[in-house]
Amino acid sequence: MKKEKIKWYIGWIIFTVWYLIGKKYILLPVIQLVFEVMSYSDAYLIVNYLWNFIAIVILFSLYGTEILRDIKEIRQYDIKSIALGYIKSFALIVLFTILGGIIQFIVSSGNSALSINEMTLRMTMREHYWAIMILSVFIGPILEELIFRWFIFNSINKSAIIKMIVSSVLFGLMHFIPSIGAIGLNELCLQSIQYVLAGIAFCLVYIKRGNVVFGISAHMSINLVHNLMYLVNQ
Prior knowledge:
By secondary structure, the protein is mostly helical. It is 84% helix and 0% strand. It has helices at 2-34, 40-72, 79-107, 116-127, 129-155, 160-174, 185-209, 212-233. Helix 1 runs antiparallel to helix 2, helix 2 crosses helix 4 and helix 4 (116-127) runs antiparallel to helix 5 (129-155). The model has no long low-confidence stretch (mean pLDDT 86).
C-alpha cells in the first residue's frame, strides 16, 4: 500500500513539473537551438508531439499495468451498451461545451479573446492541418483523459466531488499555462470557464461509465467537430 502511494506522489511531482516547464522551458529552447532556421509554427508542432509522447511514456511507465487493466474492462460491455454510452457521453460533453460558451460570452459581455494556446494552435493548423488534426483529435484526448480523469481520480483519496473539482480546475488551467504572464488574472480565469465546465462533463462521464474509454472517445469526437468547424469557417 505504501509503494502505491509513493507511485501516486511521484506521478503528481513529475506531471506538475512537466506541464509547467516541460514544453516552454525545456523542449522549445532545445528545438529552436538545434534547428535555428525553423519557423515558430514548425517548432511548436515538433515540441507538442515530443511533449505529449514523453508524457505518455512517463504515464505508462508508472501506471501502464493499471491503465491497461482498466481499459480492458470495456470488454464487459456489449456493442449496444458501448454505442449508447458513447452517444450519451458525447451529448453531455456538447451540452456542457455550449453552456460554457454561453456563460463565458455573458460574463465577458461578448469581448472574450482566444487564449494564446488556441491562437497558436490555429496559426499552426494553417500550415500543418493534418499534423494538428492527429495531435488534437487523437494524441491530446488520450493523454488528457488518462491524466486528468484516470490519474487524478485514482490518486486522490477523497470524495468524487473533490476529485471532480480538482480535476476540472487543473484541466482548465492546463489549457492556459502559455497565457500565464501574458494576460491578466481576470481574463485568465474568464477564459478558463469553458474548459473547467468541459472538465466537469468529462468527470461525470468517467464517474457514470466507470471506464476512461468513453471519455476518450467523446473527447476525440468533440475535438474533431471543433477542428472541422474551424476549417469550414476558414
